[in-house]
Amino acid sequence: MTIKQELKDVQNLYDERGIDIQKVGIKNVELPLIIQRKNDDDQYVYAKAQVSVNLHKNYKGTHMSRFMEILNTWSQKHLLSTDTKGFLTEIQKKLAASSAEVELTFKYFIKKTAPISKISSQQGYECSFKGVLENKKYTFYLGVKVPITTLCPCSKEISQYSAHNQRAIITVNISYPEDRHIWIEDLIKLIEKHGSCEIYPLLKRRDEKYVTEKAYNNPKFVEDVTRDIVLELRKNETITEFEIEVESFESIHNHSAWAYQKEIKNGVEKRKNYSMITYNL
Amino acid sequence: MTIKQELKDVQNLYDERGIDIQKVGIKNVELPLIIQRKNDDDQYVYAKAQVSVNLHKNYKGTHMSRFMEILNTWSQKHLLSTDTKGFLTEIQKKLAASSAEVELTFKYFIKKTAPISKISSQQGYECSFKGVLENKKYTFYLGVKVPITTLCPCSKEISQYSAHNQRAIITVNISYPEDRHIWIEDLIKLIEKHGSCEIYPLLKRRDEKYVTEKAYNNPKFVEDVTRDIVLELRKNETITEFEIEVESFESIHNHSAWAYQKEIKNGVEKRKNYSMITYNL
Amino acid sequence: MTIKQELKDVQNLYDERGIDIQKVGIKNVELPLIIQRKNDDDQYVYAKAQVSVNLHKNYKGTHMSRFMEILNTWSQKHLLSTDTKGFLTEIQKKLAASSAEVELTFKYFIKKTAPISKISSQQGYECSFKGVLENKKYTFYLGVKVPITTLCPCSKEISQYSAHNQRAIITVNISYPEDRHIWIEDLIKLIEKHGSCEIYPLLKRRDEKYVTEKAYNNPKFVEDVTRDIVLELRKNETITEFEIEVESFESIHNHSAWAYQKEIKNGVEKRKNYSMITYNL
Amino acid sequence: MTIKQELKDVQNLYDERGIDIQKVGIKNVELPLIIQRKNDDDQYVYAKAQVSVNLHKNYKGTHMSRFMEILNTWSQKHLLSTDTKGFLTEIQKKLAASSAEVELTFKYFIKKTAPISKISSQQGYECSFKGVLENKKYTFYLGVKVPITTLCPCSKEISQYSAHNQRAIITVNISYPEDRHIWIEDLIKLIEKHGSCEIYPLLKRRDEKYVTEKAYNNPKFVEDVTRDIVLELRKNETITEFEIEVESFESIHNHSAWAYQKEIKNGVEKRKNYSMITYNL
Predict the structure, then answer these.
(1) Are D146 and D192 in contact (CB under 8 A)?
(2) When you count CB atoms within 10 A of the terminal residue's CB, does the N or C end of chain A come out lower?
(3) For chain A, what is the largest distance between any 2 Cα atoms, rounded to a whole number of angstroms?
(4) C-alpha triplet D243, D245, D247: angle, nearest 5°
(5) Cβ separation D166–B165 shorter than 8 A
(6) Where are the alpha helices (DSSP H) in chain D?
């Protein structure tokens, strides 16, 4: 065998199967990212990224290393999280694709102030940015996971005293038009108040008394939390579509109670090849 | 306080918010399940279940304990995995709902025979059954995750010798009409052959030589694996829709390469409120 | 290049580095397993296995496929879970090793009867069998994870009404002499009663009233649960050493409270090269 | 019922069971952390923390909120990662304990330069800091997880061409004296070179040719990687004890091959109540 002089571009070969592939890319990519905070300095986060493009039927493969090259450059320029559309436009161009998608998930920290003692601490929220570019149509999705307490209305009603309560997670994904903006901080604030009580990293005794009593005065099923957030998101005029899941890690069972709702507001065009996927993929 | 004599049905209260909820139920329920095997005895498996119904706007909550009661009965009668529609029909009726969904995921074991030594061993595959009942329209989805080896065509082409290879996972979900049946064993067989080489729990030295050389003779990108399975599933007349993901845990990177395709065959009516969800929910 | 006629045994080569390796083997092996139940039929489970031996400094490698061969045979003979020592003795012999270890983890289902309605349902418990053979010295460890409810004594004391409560997990590993036996069912029964209340898959309204009130009448910190189990395990004469962790998924925080204790009873010889490992390995 | 005027300190009550608890604290605490880099600016990371103290038999409970208060203050002062001993000394004092432990795990990014093209990209490594203070005796542990490629020597030897290869993870925990220091960057550099080849986030075609051929020229079992790192860590005079695990995600199987070694150098006093724990806790 002799050393190959030229490194052949195998991906560029003609493919005879005649199949356009909807998404091809990389996933579980770890990278540091800088997120713009509302009224504060930027926050450095550790993100997981997933990027893809469509692949035309004529080509054997996409050029995977270009995704990393572009991610790398945008991650260093601090623009990936603020100009998702610009990033996708470059991906689309450099990979000669008609559609491109990126999804970034990361833990984001926000100061929470204890209700009575007013001591503040940092709470981490799992967040996500998702951008989809189909030809020139761009859609952006913002996602947050917000831990809360739920206290069971049935348990309160039927018991002589107390009620079972537990940690629950509200997951919300929203979309809004390109010329509008919703801060992570503001979306969390909209949602967090709809549990039986909020959750805090640091509570002193007088705070603990407050949250215990507040949850008891405010019993909610997952159905109640879901409906209150549906009302909140319906009336927000910036939001064009939303998806909610509330999962409550029942303290009396080893399984969860959950509720789910997805709504697209009137007048919003539904995306043809919507990048959604069943639970068990 | 006096002891409450009657245990009030809080869930049954009238709800004033006027919001129909799309899905309410339980998830992460663990239960033993019995799966019918092709040409063999039944297999006992450990399953995770998720069940839900819609909730009419007039009611404050659904009756979560009824899901467990019905799951419990069907799990003991050994029918849950074989008569998913019957199970959903009972759920629909007992919870006075117009739609009902169930999803069961479990590890299923199939004998694999080493290619040369012919020694057999048990390989575990993550599988799922998903049933959706909307009024009287019933749809069933079968899902499997199949581990294979992929060997990189580019690495082989450009290198003087060898090529990087790695474990990859093919995830396939399919649907077929109510009056037809596809065995887990048969679906896995359709898919498994499309990697660079199959994976086996037990290989002797002469088998290891065979799989090493076979993978080298059969280099495939995730795009190649995806396209070959698309061709396979398109030509299968029983299958009405399918979804494929191929994820390759690259041995030269700490991230994955992946490809994705979803197709609904002509003439298949698209479901109105399709139970799909974004990756990061 | 010509085809190699003989398949050389590379593992058997002499190693010049002069290093005895403490453990070499396979892990994350999936296999079906049959567990003997107390007063009942056997239970089929899905197990994850980890097996290892020591490797003498003279040899380049161990023969990994032999682990699978022996696991395979013992899994089919239904003896792996009941004669762990016999399995390790064969491993030790066939791999020419002086020490051998196996660990099997699996979900095991036990019927639980609701406290008032007496309806029964299946609850899954994560369990483990671990056997260690060092020359001829054999030690066996039984592990269980038991979900319970904890209700906070501080929250109850300081609040005018109610108290925060949540799901918690008790993990217990015990050891006992070769000529004694403790059933999984019995170990779980010893532990489960020490929470504020037990957890059940299926509860009707009158049961829910009972568990809500019982937990309120029985408030416990993770420290309380730990101490009560320490007392229980100290007084059990069969048990020679134990390890306890109680982790409570606080409903008012997004983190856990936990407590940990490990005790080896007097007269029990401590193992020289104890197979323990730090949390973050 | 009247409002309780004083909020009683329940934790401070006398406990009659007479049991000293070895560890009580909080875990799965999320917090932003600042890590000092070698020859570079600090790096902001997202950490998971676990903190504990011992609890004297006279007291019913520890004061969990104090852990968060102190974590909070040290996290903001940017000292938690650089003065772990100072942090533990404060914990010990404010919780009136004789022993205290903290463990921080986080993803840390280091620039990697592709071998031929010299393009640089950021690779994330899971790292951990663990500090243990028993009375006045302080011990510090540094942990890293390093992904590499392993190429099987047996597969290479017996096959006419190619060899199976795959991603593997090397986990190393080390300890060194209080007056010495080892940078994360330096520990990773010591370890990373001992795979068949290093792993990179971004590789161009000429790099891919290089890593493919390098791995083939450098076949290694998990036993080989382990022994080479044992030699490396034995000869490093700063390191007083170490623990290594190498796990290789076999591309021809659905399970892993692994090797493990733990060594404490001569003259190092073994800790009485060593904070190690079995795999399945």
Answers:
(1) yes
(2) N
(3) 86
(4) 175
(5) yes
(6) 64-76, 84-94, 153-158, 184-192, 205-216, 222-235
The minimum CA-CA distance between D203 and chain A, rounded to whole Å, is: 6
Rounded to whole angstroms, how far apart are CA atoms A195 and A148?
A: 6
Who among D147, D158, D213 is closest to B161 (CB)? D213
Chosen for mutation from B3, B19, B242 (greatest number of chain A CBs closer than 10 Å) is B19
**Strand, coil or helix: B244:** strand
Residue of A44, A103, A281 lying closest to B170 (CA atoms): A281
**Helix, strand or coil for residue C244?**
strand
C–D interface: beta-carbon pairs under 8 A: 204
CA–CA gap between residue C174 and residue C193 (Å, rounded): 17
**Distance of alpha carbon C40 from alpha carbon C183, whole angstroms:** 12
Chain A residues touching residue D205 (CB < 8 angstroms) = 7, 9, 65
Of all residues in chain B, the percent with pLDDT exceeding 70 is 94
Distance of CA B219 to the CA centre of its chain: 27
CB distance from D204 to chain A under 8 Å? yes
Q: Mention every residue, 6+ apart, whose C-beta is less than 8 A from residue C87.
A: C70, C74, C79, C80, C102, C131
User: Which of helix, strand or coil describes residue C280?
Assistant: coil
Instruction: For chains A and D, count residue pairs whose Cβ atoms are closer than 8 Å.
Output: 74
B contacts of A230 (beta carbons < 8 Å): 19
User: B209 vs D123: CB contact, 8 Å cut-off?
Assistant: no
Q: Which residues of A touch C188 (CB under 8 A)?
A: none
**B264 CB within 8 Å of a chain A CB:** no
Q: What torsion do the CA atoms of D35, D36, D38, D44 make, to the nearest 10 degrees?
A: 50
CB atoms within 10 A of CB D160: 12
CA distance, residue A232 to nearest chain C CA (Å) = 24
> Facing residues of A121 across strands?
A112
Longest alpha-carbon distance in chain D: 86
Q: What is the pLDDT of residues C138-152, one digit of tens each?
A: 999 999 999 999 999
Query: Does C232 touch chain D if contact means CB atoms closer than 8 Å?
Result: no
- Would you list the DSSP string of D43-77? EEEEEEEEEEEEE-TTBS---HHHHHHHHHHHHHT
Measured at the alpha carbon of residue D228, what is the angle toward residues D222 and D234, in degrees to the nearest 5? Answer: 130
At B220-229, the pLDDT tens digits run: 999 999 999 9
What digits encode the pLDDT tens for the residues B44-103?
999 999 999 999 999 999 999 999 999 999 988 878 888 999 999 999 999 999 999 999
The set of chains that have 3 or more CB pairs under 8 A with C is A, B, D
Query: In this structure, are residues A140 and A279 in contact, taking their beta carbons and an 8 Å threshold?
Result: no
- In terms of pTM, does the model score above 0.90? yes
Q: Which of residues 65-94 of C touch D (CB under 8 A)?
A: none
Residue B112 to residue B101: CA distance in whole angstroms: 33
Contact partners, residue C197, CB within 8 Å, separation at least 6: A252, C148, C149, C151, C211, C214, C215, C218
Please tell me the distance from the alpha carbon of residue B25 to that of residue A260, in angstroms, as a whole number: 9
Using CA atoms, how far apart are residues D218 and B133, in angstroms rounded to an integer? 57
3-state SS of C174-195 is EECCCCCCCCHHHHHHHHHCCC
Contact B230/A at CB under 8 A: yes
The pair of structure tokens assigned to A79 is: 């623009």
**Shortest Cα distance from B3 to chain C (angstroms)?**
11
CB nearest to A209's CB, from C124, C158, C208: C158
Residues in B touching D215 (Cβ below 8 Å)? 162, 164
Q: How confident is the model over D219-224, as a mean pLDDT?
A: 98
